[in-house]
Amino acid sequence: MHQPAIPHLALADPDIAGLVEAEARRQFEKVRLIASENYVSPAVLEATGTVLTNKYSEGYPGRRYYEGQQNVDPVELLAVDRAKALFGVEHANVQPYSGAPANLAVYLAFAQPGDTIMGMALPMGGHLTHGWSVSASGKWFNAVRYSVRADGPDAGRADLDEVRELALKERPKLIFCGGTAIPRTIDFPAFAEIARESGAVLVADVAHIAGLIAGGAHPSPVGYADVISTTTHKTLRGPRGAMLMSTAEHATAIDKAVFPGLQGGPHDHTTAAIAVALREASTSEFSAYAHQIVANAKALAEALLERGFDLVSGGTDNHLILVDLTGKGVAGKPAARALDRAGIELNYNTVPFDPRKPFDPSGVRLGTAAITTRGLTPELMPRIADWIDQAVQAAAKEDDAALDGIAAQVRELLAAYPMPGWAQTP
């Protein structure tokens, strides 16, 4: 059952309580490979459900617009201090509600509507908020988009020659590096040199890899990027929230953009949970966890390659694997749905230069943060790759019985691996 228990919710609203319990069981019984998801610790989970959710705290510590901040101010200051210490930054703002508003705050701080901004194109692995056409960032700014290399030894990796050429030609106010489907190490020094040469502010969006950076399993953008944007979940294993970090030079602009520029009162219960997650991420145990995420991803990538899967860029350096299923004779969406039935949760995803539409793309995206939290190790990755292979073949044949058989095997394996937020009933 859900842990901590939810007796008051069950009494007040059994419909919602039943769905929460069902979701907890679903998370326990699935190999969760969605690259942007994880399991929070019991402490983080408890913090999100505290009476801090009752409080309004517009403003910043010591400069609030509501009274009664005697306990809230220290909570936010703890979160800020822990973020600064963990990532080695001069300034941190822990108030953004999520990653997209955090990135919009960066635009508000450094650009005016119509200015030129630059980011990786969404189909190449970038994020909606890096200037894609359907996002406010693409509608309000002149968005210039860079790609990945199409072939050669660096195929699937950011085309830094193109980045430099575009930056020098277009002179953007902002350059975003990072994204949502990038399986390789981000070359922060190279991006920093391009930004310096073109006169742009460099923004590193490390939402996916923040936990790896904190744990020393991925290079840090600190010292290269003027601003760092991140969510606080994914590999960082915190609640659904976000942070902006920067040099002291940009602190005031960032803070004014977040409040009052884009939002009102912060979610104090989330701030507390962020503080807890940051404390957990400062431990040696978390560092070992971050490196284990990468080890699991590399082992899973190798096992998929051995089974004939086409991986974008040929593998991974972090937690994320992007698979082009064209050679398997099945598209990303039916494959993802079949895998979900088979007890393996991931998402369909475009791949670079994808000829298919974004809502029916050629690929799937997977990551190893959540299964690493459960305690799975590289030795188990070939078994997961086998199940993925079998499920993809079953999807091509529409063989539901085979998918149900895989799901039973998945449940049997995962029964031995505890999940934060779930307790087996006797």
TrEMBL record:
<dbReference type="InterPro" id="IPR039429">
    <property type="entry name" value="SHMT-like_dom"/>
</dbReference>
<keyword id="KW-0554">One-carbon metabolism</keyword>
<comment type="pathway">
    <text>One-carbon metabolism; tetrahydrofolate interconversion.</text>
</comment>
<dbReference type="InterPro" id="IPR015421">
    <property type="entry name" value="PyrdxlP-dep_Trfase_major"/>
</dbReference>
<dbReference type="InterPro" id="IPR001085">
    <property type="entry name" value="Ser_HO-MeTrfase"/>
</dbReference>
<comment type="function">
    <text>Catalyzes the reversible interconversion of serine and glycine with tetrahydrofolate (THF) serving as the one-carbon carrier. This reaction serves as the major source of one-carbon groups required for the biosynthesis of purines, thymidylate, methionine, and other important biomolecules. Also exhibits THF-independent aldolase activity toward beta-hydroxyamino acids, producing glycine and aldehydes, via a retro-aldol mechanism.</text>
</comment>
<keyword id="KW-0028">Amino-acid biosynthesis</keyword>
<keyword id="KW-0663">Pyridoxal phosphate</keyword>
<dbReference type="InterPro" id="IPR015424">
    <property type="entry name" value="PyrdxlP-dep_Trfase"/>
</dbReference>
<dbReference type="InterPro" id="IPR049943">
    <property type="entry name" value="Ser_HO-MeTrfase-like"/>
</dbReference>
<feature type="binding site">
    <location>
        <begin position="126"/>
        <end position="128"/>
    </location>
    <ligand>
        <name>(6S)-5,6,7,8-tetrahydrofolate</name>
    </ligand>
</feature>
<feature type="binding site">
    <location>
        <position position="122"/>
    </location>
    <ligand>
        <name>(6S)-5,6,7,8-tetrahydrofolate</name>
    </ligand>
</feature>
<comment type="similarity">
    <text>Belongs to the SHMT family.</text>
</comment>
<dbReference type="InterPro" id="IPR015422">
    <property type="entry name" value="PyrdxlP-dep_Trfase_small"/>
</dbReference>
<comment type="subunit">
    <text>Homodimer.</text>
</comment>
<keyword id="KW-0808">Transferase</keyword>
<dbReference type="InterPro" id="IPR019798">
    <property type="entry name" value="Ser_HO-MeTrfase_PLP_BS"/>
</dbReference>
<feature type="binding site">
    <location>
        <position position="249"/>
    </location>
    <ligand>
        <name>(6S)-5,6,7,8-tetrahydrofolate</name>
    </ligand>
</feature>
<feature type="domain" description="Serine hydroxymethyltransferase-like">
    <location>
        <begin position="11"/>
        <end position="388"/>
    </location>
</feature>
<protein>
    <recommendedName>
        <fullName>Serine hydroxymethyltransferase</fullName>
        <ecNumber>2.1.2.1</ecNumber>
    </recommendedName>
</protein>
<feature type="site" description="Plays an important role in substrate specificity">
    <location>
        <position position="233"/>
    </location>
</feature>
<keyword id="KW-0963">Cytoplasm</keyword>
<feature type="modified residue" description="N6-(pyridoxal phosphate)lysine">
    <location>
        <position position="234"/>
    </location>
</feature>
<dbReference type="Pfam" id="PF00464">
    <property type="entry name" value="SHMT"/>
</dbReference>
<comment type="pathway">
    <text>Amino-acid biosynthesis; glycine biosynthesis; glycine from L-serine: step 1/1.</text>
</comment>
